[in-house]
Design brief:
Layout (H helix, E strand, L loop, with lengths): L3 H36 L8 H13 L9 H4 L8
């Protein structure tokens, strides 16, 4: 039967292992995203105010695409945020 000390030790080891795994995965993902941004595969994150301004500009002039490739995205069933 497990003693309270062994249960606490198990939970502590689990929490530490999870934290280390999260830290490692976060660093790997951050390096990958930075590499993709440098190669032009991923856009830089925008603030919500910039997104609202872009949507308002697109609504004011529906004929012109708001960003590069926007005309290609329309009409293909994709959700454009």
């Amino acid at each position: 039967m497990n003693t309270p000390r062994s249960v606490a030790y198990g939970w502590g080891a689990l929490i530490v292992a999870t934290g280390i795994g999260y830290w490692y995965a976060k660093g790997v993902n951050e390096r990958r995203w930075n590499d993709q941004r440098a190669r032009g595969l991923r856009a830089n994150p925008t603030d919500w105010k910039e997104k609202v301004a872009a949507e308002e500009a697109a609504a004011a002039n529906p004929d012109a695409p708001a960003e590069a490739g926007e005309a290609e995205k329309k009409g293909r069933g994709r959700i454009v945020l």
